[in-house]
Amino acid sequence: MTQKELLKQLNIAPNTLKSWENNGLNRLEPPIEGCRTIYYKVDDVLKFLTK
Fold first, then answer.
1. How many Cα atoms within 13 Å fall on the side-chain side of residue 23?
2. Alpha-helical runs (H) found in the chain
3. Would the pLDDT of 48 be above 90?
4. Angle between helices 14-22 and 3-10 (to 10 degrees)
5. Which helix (H) or strand (E) holds 5?
6. Signal sequence: where (predicted)?
7. Which residue has the higher pLDDT, 8 or 29?
8. Where are the domains of the chain?
9. 20 falls in which pLDDT band (50, 70, 90)?
């Protein structure tokens, strides 16, 4: 899931997502070199939200 999709789906602000990253939510490396899109695994997000 892209960062943009996650922000929209959960109706959260970019600063909230940044805070989650600082507290342990992992980003995925872009599958294409030079790509600036940020990705997250749905499973990782769900685990983070339920811990």
1. 11
2. 3-10, 14-22, 42-50
3. yes
4. 110
5. helix 3-10
6. none
7. 8
8. 3-50
9. very high
| Confidence (pLDDT) at 33 | 79
3-class state of residue 4 by DSSP? helix
Neighbours of 17 (CB within 10 A): 19
The answer to whether residues 1 and 44 touch, using CB atoms and an 8 Å cutoff, is: no
Q: Among residues 32, 36, 35, 27, which one has the least CA distance to residue 1?
A: 27
Give the contacts of 12 (CB within 8 A, at least 6 positions apart): 6
3-state SS, residue 28: strand
Give residue 4's identity as a one-letter amino acid code.
K
| pTM check: above 0.85 | no
Neighbouring CB atoms inside 10 A of 45's CB total 18
